[in-house]
Design goal:
This protein has 679 residues and is an alpha+beta fold. Helices cover 38% and strands 17% of the residues. It folds into 3 domains: 8-268, Chondroitin AC/alginate lyase (Glycosyltransferase); 273-384, no CATH class; 385-678, Beta-galactosidase, Chain A, domain 5. Strand 6 (395-399) and strand 7 form a beta hairpin.
């Protein structure tokens, strides 16, 4: 059909019939009914075809499974981008019985007793994401399959009949991502019993198929689009058309999208996936949860199930490398660090996908090491190095062992990628002490609501563990509160070296234009970290610079003196010491997290601001200890380690931590033979 309409009201049943592929097995009854001019019979036959077809294979098969175990689909059900559990699925379905749709943060979208709110939202021209992505329909279908309760089936019929009748689809290229997710949800529905059950009119299921065909066909509008380096482009122009063409061979107009979708995916792998496993979005959560686990896995899984391919050779290896790279970033507690936009991500699903689907030896070894699996075939020598610097990806990670009680640090060495999900987190650090996440981003799992007061603060350098020149961010918080992401600031790693006992790095950025922030970090295995922050260039103002640290909410702080304290979490102890000639160390509850985190100040996480003047440097020690050191020991650390380090203007990897160990002694640090072996 030339000049294919973009408004569903302009197409007819005959238009769909004209696009059918009658050469496909199982389509003869549809063809016969149409030849005999029995369109209603053709509709019933087409519905029956989708009920009984055995190929192509979808991500799961839930037809005819009453009383049987349903195959687990690749990935999980997602609402608003967040994976939900089986219990949550039923909860979402129960809410839908009340005409309430929940998003990923369990915010309610009420449709009204007669779904009148649905029509109001439709008239606004763009349905909210939780509604347009149709994840709640998948929840309804799943709840019905599991419980066989009629109420779920009746609600499915009520909603779908209202929606398909009152909300005809109109193509909006600016909302094509939500449109694609909605279409994929409908494909999934066709692989459940719910559209074919007694009490569901075949006419309703035919309308669902017709709307699915019309919606998927709209992605032909991207046929002539040039390459654009956005994840939306990857999903809308590549992944979705590839899937539509593969899974809907009943429609002739879908076929051209197969090769084009494959080409777009290949192009993105070449340009947006780096050779070291990184991705052009500097967000671990987004590039892992959204791009790898939610987007990219689908075409690869479907291609494998249907005996075809997406890419081969080096490009496929590059994708596999992405799983291994992210595996190397996993903290000892099994979570991925919060760098960039984050929703909180336990890494087991990522590792499981890499291991089972791509046969990634690195993922298998990591799962074994962290106690996430017991695989006798996993090779320990496939574990990543304890210290790794990913130049392209923009991460520097170091640990003293692959155990759940290891010490760990990761630095954001932000790169020149896309800005949509990146933060102003240049040289920011996350620490784990004896396996406990101690310093990081306690705000990361909160939402970044556009226009909210806190959004700008969450994106800005203000909420990260780095240095604010003259105690101010590069841009005011308000700038980021009304924009997506942050413009990227390049970080230069000037020096990096690592061996079996330590990691040392020097990195800097020029984001302030008139200033350069340089950070030196020494990590000695089983002992701790020495840091030296310097701000070069720029005018000599009286306003001091600020070295900022954010502690997780379950960390307690015990003051030793004005420039030293002991941070505790579980059995982990972290001694934090600064020179006593700095402007000051201010430790307080983080009131920026009041709303959404807790309204009780005592439950707010601690943060520490350390102030130093321009022309001076800020040195500090983070030591892993077993007990609180004495005041005299803290003073010796200042006199024998921190002051000489600041005066010389550099960290001395070979000597500085030896002095720390000598001062604190074995009783205070108390490392076991097991620890020594791990180093």
């Amino acid at each position: 059909m030339d000049n294919f309409p973009t408004d569903e009201r302009r197409i007819t049943d005959e238009d769909l019939f004209a696009d059918l592929n009658f050469a496909l097995p199982g389509m003869k009854k549809v063809e016969k009914a149409l030849r005999e001019k029995r369109p209603e019979a053709a509709k019933v036959a087409l519905v029956e075809h989708f009920r009984t077809r055995t190929k192509p294979y979808w991500l799961y098969e839930a037809r005819g499974v009453s009383g049987k175990r349903v195959e687990k689909p690749t990935g999980t059900i997602r609402i608003g981008g967040r994976a939900i559990t089986a219990e949550e699925t039923i909860f979402h379905a129960d809410k839908m019985l009340e005409n309430i749709i929940l998003d990923s943060k369990d915010l309610e979208l009420g449709l009204g007793p007669g779904m009148e709110r649905l029509l109001e939202l439709y008239d606004l021209g763009r349905l909210p994401s939780p509604l347009s992505r149709m994840g709640f329909l998948t929840c309804l279908a799943t709840a019905y399959i599991v419980t066989r309760e009629r109420a779920y089936l009746d609600k499915y019929v009520e909603f779908l009949d209202t929606y398909l009748r009152e909300c005809p689809f109109v193509w909006n290229p600016k909302d094509s991502m939500n449109t694609a997710w909605g279409a994929l949800a409908w494909i999934g529905l066709l692989h459940t019993d719910i559209p074919y059950e007694e009490g569901v009119p075949p006419e309703l299921t035919f309308r669902l198929i017709r709307t699915l065909w019309f919606t998927a066909r709209q992605f032909r509008n991207f046929d002539d689009d040039p390459y654009v380096p956005y994840n939306h482009h990857l999903f809308e122009r590549g992944i979705s058309p590839f899937i539509f063409a593969l899974i809907l061979p009943e429609f002739l107009d879908m076929k051209p999208m197969f090769k084009r979708g494959r080409r777009v995916i290949r192009e993105h792998l070449q340009r947006d996936f780096y050779e070291d496993g990184g991705y052009n979005e500097h967000s671990i959560w987004y590039s892992t949860g959204a791009v790898l686990e939610e987007m990219m896995i689908k075409p690869f899984d479907l291609a494998k199930r249907n005996h075809t391919f997406v890419v081969r050779g080096k490009l496929r290896e590059r994708l596999i490398r992405s799983y291994g790279m992210r595996g190397s970033l996993i903290m000892p507690d099994g979570n991925l660090p919060d760098i960039g936009d984050s929703g909180g991500l336990f890494a087991k699903d990522l590792l499981e996908t890499g291991k089972q689907f791509f046969k990634c030896a690195t993922c298998a070894a990591i799962m074994n090491a962290l106690g996430l699996s017991k695989d006798k075939k996993a090779k320990r020598n496939a574990l990543p190095p304890k210290s790794v610097f990913y130049d392209k990806a923009g991460y520097l990670v170091a640990r003293d062992g692959w155990k759940t009680d290891s010490n760990y640090v990761v630095m954001s060495t932000n790169v020149l990628g896309l800005n949509w999900h990146a933060h102003h987190d240049m040289l920011s650090l996350n620490f784990s002490v004896k396996g406990e996440a101690m310093i990081g981003e306690p705000n990361a799992k909160m939402g970044y609501e556009m226009g909210s007061i806190g959004r700008g603060w969450f994106y800005n350098i203000t909420s990260h563990n780095t240095v604010l020149a003259y105690s101010k961010p590069i841009q005011d918080d308000i700038y980021f509160s009304v924009n997506y992401g942050c413009y990227p600031v390049p970080v230069k790693v000037l020096k990096y070296q690592a061996d079996k006992k330590h990691m040392f790095a020097v990195a800097a950025h020029d984001g302030y234009t008139s200033n350069q922030h340089q950070r030196e970090i020494l990590f000695v295995h089983n002992c701790g970290w020495l840091l030296l922050d310097s701000v070069f260039k720029g005018p000599l103002f009286e306003t001091p610079h600020c070295q900022r640290w954010h502690f997780y909410k379950d960390v307690t702080i015990e003051k030793i003196d004005s420039h030293a304290f002991l941070a505790r979490k579980g059995t982990a102890r972290l001694l934090c010491v600064w020179p006593d000639d700095l402007v000051g160390v201010e430790v307080r509850k983080n009131e920026m997290l009041n709303e959404g985190a807790t309204k009780k100040e005592k439950h707010l996480p601690w943060m520490a601001d350390v102030f130093f003047m321009h022309g001076s440097q800020c040195g500090c020690l983070f030591a892993v200890v077993e007990k609180k050191p004495s005041l005299s020991q803290v003073r010796k650390i200042r006199e024998q380690v921190l002051r000489p380090m600041v005066e010389s203007g550099r960290v001395a990897p070979e000597t500085d931590m030896k002095r720390v160990k000598a001062i604190l002694g074995t009783r205070c640090m108390k490392h076991t033979k097991h620890d020594a072996k791990q180093s």
